[in-house]
């Protein structure tokens, strides 16, 4: 902070030439310059402050410079709610001064330095006024609206938004230097908070370690095949093509294969709108994807991913047909989320080259890939799958053989607990609000609609209950989904499930006739009951996460936390389910779960790991450090 203050008050003009995204600390440095110039012809450049997403705030004077530069209201939108700006948007609001072609960037910066007459920041000049007015000038409404919006977005779970608002409010009432001291004090408070510690670990440190867990082979994959041109298959094809690979997409008919190519094109357009790809590269990327109705074209590929319907019989047939065509050095992957890997590969000639590769939808945007070897999968195959995932810019998490996927277990626990609540008589709106209140992006019933009730029912029928005690709960869920499927309420794809959906799914409301299928409103819906629902939705996922360690799906708590955050939408303020266990303590979690009603508490039966943590007074991550 002191260095940037010396820079902007040194008496000499300083220009920031920005040729890429400037986020967080990078943008703070740019704000200390007297003139900011950005490249115009790169559609992926973004400017903003993402610190709130880590439970922190800008700590190099950013909370003081930004409102003094562009006004309080816009600064709140960027720092509290994470708005990121394109170069043209940043120029329009005054965050940057010029947008120029890439070949003119340095020339423009040098011209400013040579010709600038006043090398001082606006807030260091006599008579300065905050754009749009300061707090004393009537600019209190932005804070009132921001507090209400922060309550809706963060649900009171995260201390960072309140701290940032305090920095802006109190800092703009005083001098710049005093405002910076207020910022430092608030940052120190956040830095000591468990939220920031957990989030920084799970967002930066753990992914870095996971990327180093396996050594990728020296030879990169150049050409892959994808069998199944549906939403998942076309997404995998696009992700590979974006990374420069040649892709062959095969389906049962030419029309189906072409439809997959069209889906990839539409997905690319959505990436452009989000600033994650450049429109000018579209044709080149899509040319790398070849659509065909024949499996014969897969014979020259080095890696094939099966992405057909989640049915064991169908998948076995496709995998056997692919296996007969591929050379011995090629590897075969199955994109399954619920089926065991070893049984799927029983009929293959070379079982050692078969591995599970679980992508998440939408594939081009989702960073996580779970790699699950079968019992006979060669370590070299796992390394090649790991290298391929890294090659297409994904974060690979390697699991143990045939023990299930982390994301599937945690997501299923959230959805099924929501269905149990509905079956008990809780009002669907209360259930959905409880899910959002803990920080989930969607309520469990909305997620069920997104997955599709026929697909969920098919997965449940292929996954028998773990034991006799779980059979009744399993049967309840099957009966509920069957009732919806029988009246053709399949979810969002059919225009209706628990919700009714408007045109293209853009609007929704809870289905008014839902009470005719499932009686609701009979549960005591007071504040204490709402808190219990919140805890149950959170604890169900935590219970599944603990089960991943306890049953040997993985031995690494980092893999569980990162997978839950990136793959399941687990509340980010916790830093992950296992981090949250360490934060609240194993004893607290056990007492909370034992306080549920008899049938519910049975689903939360304390696992051996949690019991050992409570008895020893230890944390999960402390044990992990000792093991390493």
Structural notes for this entry:
The protein has 628 residues and is an alpha/beta fold. Helices cover 51% and strands 10% of the residues. The chain has an eight-stranded mixed sheet, sandwiched between helices. Strands 1-3-5 form a three-stranded parallel sheet, with helices on both faces. It has a two-stranded parallel sheet with strand order 2-4. The longest helix is centred in the last third of the chain and has 24 residues, at 527-550. The relative contact order is 0.07.
CATH class of the largest domain: Mainly Alpha
Summed up, the helix count is 29
What is the terminal separation in angstroms? Answer: 37 Å
Number of strands: 15
Tell me, rounded to a whole number, the average pLDDT: 92
The CATH architecture of the largest domain is Orthogonal Bundle
Rg value:
27 Å
Task: Indicate how many domains the architecture comprises.
Answer: 3
Which ranges are low-confidence, i.e. pLDDT below 50, for 5 or more consecutive residues?
none
Derived structural class: alpha/beta
| Major sheet | 8 strands, mixed
- Lateral arrangement of strands in the main beta sheet: 8-7-6-9-10-11-12-13
Helix content: 40-55%
Choose one word for the global shape. globular
Quaternary assembly:
single chain
Strand content: 5-15%
CATH topology-level fold name of the largest domain: N-(1-d-carboxylethyl)-l-norvaline Dehydrogenase, domain 2
């Amino acid at each position: 902070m002191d260095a940037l203050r010396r820079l902007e008050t040194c008496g000499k003009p300083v220009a920031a030439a920005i040729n890429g995204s400037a986020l967080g600390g990078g943008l703070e440095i740019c704000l200390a310059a007297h003139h900011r110039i950005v490249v115009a012809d790169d559609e992926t450049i973004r400017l903003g402050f993402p610190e709130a997403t880590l439970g922190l705030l800008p700590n190099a004077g950013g909370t003081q410079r930004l409102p003094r530069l562009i006004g309080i209201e816009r600064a709140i939108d960027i720092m509290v709610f994470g708005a990121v700006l394109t170069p043209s948007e940043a120029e329009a609001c005054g965050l940057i001064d010029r947008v120029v072609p890439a070949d003119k960037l340095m020339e423009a910066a040098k011209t400013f330095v040579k010709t600038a007459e006043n090398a001082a920041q606006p807030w260091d000049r006599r008579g300065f006024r905050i754009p749009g007015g300061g707090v004393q000038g009537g600019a209190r409404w932005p804070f009132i609206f921001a507090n209400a919006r922060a309550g809706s977005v963060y649900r009171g779970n995260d201390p960072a938004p309140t701290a940032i608002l305090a920095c802006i409010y109190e800092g703009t009432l005083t001098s710049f230097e005093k405002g910076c001291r207020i910022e430092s004090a608030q940052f120190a408070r956040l830095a000591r908070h468990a939220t920031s510690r957990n989030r920084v670990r799970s967002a930066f440190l753990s992914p870095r370690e996971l990327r180093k867990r396996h050594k990728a082979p020296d030879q990169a994959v150049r050409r892959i095949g994808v069998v199944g041109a549906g939403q998942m298959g076309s997404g995998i094809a696009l992700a590979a093509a974006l990374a420069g690979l040649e892709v062959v997409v095969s389906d049962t008919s030419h029309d189906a294969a072409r439809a997959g190519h069209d889906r990839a094109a539409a997905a690319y357009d959505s990436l452009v709108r989000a600033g994650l790809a450049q429109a000018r590269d579209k044709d080149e990327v899509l040319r790398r994807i070849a659509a065909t109705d024949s499996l014969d074209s897969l014979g020259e590929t080095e890696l094939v991913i099966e992405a057909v319907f989640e049915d064991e019989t169908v998948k076995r047939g496709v995998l056997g047909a692919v296996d007969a065509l591929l050379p011995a050095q090629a590897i075969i992957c199955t994109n399954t989320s619920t089926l065991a890997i070893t049984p799927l590969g029983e009929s293959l000639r070379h079982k050692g080259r078969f591995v599970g590769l679980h992508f998440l939808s939408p594939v081009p945007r989702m960073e996580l890939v779970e790699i699950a070897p079968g019992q006979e999968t060669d370590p070299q195959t796992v390394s090649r799958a790991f290298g391929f995932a890294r090659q297409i810019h994904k974060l690979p998490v390697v699991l143990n053989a045939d023990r299930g996927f982390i994301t599937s277990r945690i997501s299923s626990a959230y959805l099924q607990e929501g269905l149990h609540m509905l079956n008990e008589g809780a009002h669907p709106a209360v259930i959905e609000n409880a899910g959002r209140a803990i920080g989930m992006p969607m309520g469990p019933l909305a997620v069920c609609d997104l997955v599709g009730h026929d697909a969920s029912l098919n997965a449940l029928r292929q996954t028998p209950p773990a034991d006799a005690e779980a059979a009744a709960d399993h049967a309840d869920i099957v009966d509920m989904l069957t009732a919806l499927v029988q009246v053709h309420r399949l979810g969002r794809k059919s225009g209706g499930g628990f919700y009714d959906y408007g045109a293209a799914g853009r609007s929704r409301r809870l289905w008014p006739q839902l009470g005719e299928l499932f009686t609701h409103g009979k549960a005591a819906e007071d504040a204490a009951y709402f808190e219990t629902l919140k805890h149950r939705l959170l604890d169900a996922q935590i219970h599944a996460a603990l089960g991943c360690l306890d049953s040997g799906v993985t031995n690494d708590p980092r893999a569980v936390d990162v997978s839950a955050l990136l793959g399941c939408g687990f509340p980010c303020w916790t830093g992950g389910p296992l981090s949250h266990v360490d934060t609240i303590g194993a004893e607290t979690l056990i007492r909370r779960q034992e306080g549920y009603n008899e049938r519910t508490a049975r689903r939360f039966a304390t696992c051996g790991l949690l019991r050992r943590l409570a008895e020893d007074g230890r944390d999960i991550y402390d044990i992990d450090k000792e093991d390493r």
